[in-house]
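Practice problem: DUF3553 domain-containing protein
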Amino acid sequence: MDDSLVPGAWVRHPGQPDWGLGQVQSAVRNRITVNFEHAGKVLIDSDVISLTIVDPDQI
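Answer key — structure tokens:
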């Protein structure tokens, strides 16, 4: 797991750009719960999907 995937971090799903910006809600081992603008709360397996960290200054 990426150490920057902590609650409060802003991310994008590289395979689902239409989901919009997401904020990490929880991160337990490889299970990342993210609340996306247009998809709601989604559980991501970080062993399968590499979320893209978004710099908060660029939001």
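Discussion: The mean pLDDT is 94. Students who identified this feature from the tokens alone can consider the problem solved.
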